């Protein structure tokens, strides 16, 4: 997967913002490994208050539980980087916001923290529209920490567009 530039992400976010506005939807983000970069990309666009509700950076297990309602049992059984966790994150983001569409990301950006089952570059992304079913996808991104995070933002934005 290619490593998007700042200009690429900005263009992607601007186009997505227009589509969200046309659909009368606001976005909420729940981010772990991307550290708020998806929210930053969206709010870099002038007038983003028309399509962006809020963003939560939830790095720790405790923050995922407290802010998004991720169950301790889910984190213990599957870990933070899992389909089960990202689905609970994206649902919790919608519950705790006024948004109509949500994206959540959790992964291992590196350089450390990987394991044989979850190598560096493993990122789960989840998307959900209010009243709809959540969708989650596992990505395996290449490169250093910055590259993994950039690719995460690009894939998250593409997935939001697919939900519209």
UniProtKB/TrEMBL annotation:
Residue ranges of every copy of the CinA C-terminal domain listed in the record: 13-163
Source superkingdom: Bacteria
One protein family per Pfam: CinA
NCBIfam families in alphabetical order: PncC_domain
Name the UniProt record assigns to this protein: Damage-inducible protein CinA
Organism: Stenotrophomonas terrae
């Amino acid at each position: 997967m290619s490593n998007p530039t700042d200009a690429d992400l900005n263009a992607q976010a601007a186009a997505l913002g227009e589509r969200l506005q046309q659909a009368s939807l606001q976005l909420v983000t729940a981010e772990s490994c991307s550290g708020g970069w998806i929210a930053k990309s969206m709010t870099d666009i002038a007038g983003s208050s028309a399509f962006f509700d809020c963003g939560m950076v939830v790095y720790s297990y405790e923050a995922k539980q407290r802010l998004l309602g991720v169950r301790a049992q889910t984190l213990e059984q599957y870990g933070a980087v899992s389909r089960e966790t990202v689905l609970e994150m994206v649902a919790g983001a919608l519950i705790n916001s006024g948004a109509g569409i949500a994206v959540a990301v959790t992964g291992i950006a590196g350089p450390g923290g990987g394991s044989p089952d979850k190598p560096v570059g493993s990122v789960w992304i989840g998307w959900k529209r209010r009243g709809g079913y959540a969708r989650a996808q596992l990505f395996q991104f290449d490169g250093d920490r910055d590259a993994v995070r950039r690719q995460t933002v690009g894939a998250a934005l593409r997935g939001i567009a697919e939900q519209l």
